[in-house]
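Write out this protein's structure.
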Amino acid sequence: MKTTSKLQFQASGNPQDGFRLPRLLEALFVVLIFLELLAPFVTTTLGLDGRLQLKMVVEFNKLLSSGILVPTWAPDGFYNFGATSFYFYPPLTFYLTSIVGLTGMSNPMALFQAVSLLATIASFFTVRWMLRKVGSSGYRLSLASALYAFAPLRVAELYSRSSLSTHVTYVLLPLILGALIAIVREDGTSRTKRVLLLALWCALLALTNVPITVMMAMSIGIAAIAVWKKLTWNAVGEVALAATIAAGLAAYHYASVLSAQSFARLQYLYFIHRPSDIELYFHLGPGTYHLLALYAGIGIIVSAYARLRWKRVMLSDTEDTVIRIGLSITAFVLFLDFFPLSAAAWNAFQSLQLIQFPWRFYSLLLLFAVIVVGTARSSRVARAAKWISALWIAGAMLPTILVVFNVHVFSHFESPLEDAPEFLPIFFNPSHVSNGGTMQETIDQTLQPHASDPVVLGDFTLGERVERTMARPYHETLSMMLEAPRTITFHRFYWPYWHLYANGKELHSRPDSIGRATAMLPAGHYAATWQLQRTPLECAGLWISGLTAGGILLLGAVGYIRQKRKIGGV
């Protein structure tokens, strides 16, 4: 690794000033953009994870409006027995829906669609900002930005999977790449500004989507290996410092993940990969994502072929660097996608398990593809850019039309909003196991008969009485009048961080046969209180994030004052 050379992104070679798509293709692209912008206003199409997403939007907004600024437990989950959703699910997307909700919009589907539309538009401008850093301008800049904002799988993410958080990450990925470019080039901004911007974008990504965050971290490592001879130690140090600050900013959320991971069914998030999974390529549904990722990889390989086969053709520094990095990441993705070879690697490394499937890399492959389009200078790369554009537009047209005309793939309005089984506490023990049924069906069979149960259940005598006097999401008070000690079952799942107090003392609680909280309460007339409390690790995470954010604000204020004084002195 050199200590003086820099990775260059300036354009060179023979500019193709006449680069332009055929008029018919341009017209089709304009129609596609119009349809995708129209879709949120006219469609009712929702995908596989749609009900879960809408459920969490409702729950998160309700908790925020109750004054809980950092939600963890979802009290209304699983028929009001509670869910651990927000201990694990990154919160940024739900904060965005809450901000949009300040406009008076309350329907969860409308909030979902509004945030998705804003993310589409925002990603156009963030990728445009990043492309300017690599020398893109004019027609190529606008075309590449639009291809990124209206790409095929983004339609699938919103309307086939309904993964709003993944859609939001498309806004952040160009910001991270642009910040990395600024660090590598030492582009004239202060070192502090470069580090803080990269740290902020990385922290927001970590608070949006875990698989994409892990994917991005792996890809940065692969890119560093691909161009290590051109990196400087200063650049490596700045990236490491930014990663440390980002970890501090996101610590409050991941502290709750670490606190609660052993008490939830997170094994449902992991997959056993088998060589036979290659059959996914030949089925609709999940196979569609694999094929799209493969197409993206093939597109990058085609552009890389220009560098490997026609070395006599002068490529710009940008083209050379993008193709080198893109080819390295693509080779890794294609290895992961060929399960007969990669199944052992998937099952051996926890970080790969978090990514779940290779198509998670699609967003980054798309980013490299649009850089190729936006910086196409040599004749051969310009030709490849036109083919990439044509494939992208054709690939997005059909699914967009299906969405606009409300062609439903999954039934979703016929059943109520539901929670994901991985957010179910492990203390839940289904008493009715359906033969061959899904986990959700098993949950419904077990809990639905108990959905209308009262607040407490117990063998009470005529003079005894238990009434709920206060009910808040994370605090509940009951008035107890018992003639003798009684075992009482409450209408909530047992969770270790829910603590029961009576007469100034904490009472021991435990799960019953299906996981509901049960406790022995003493005789007498008194108030009993349930309180959800944060663990020491959660509190430490809040302190770390708070101190990190406070330090950044203080540093920014000092820099601003110094700049003002410098200007005043001049």
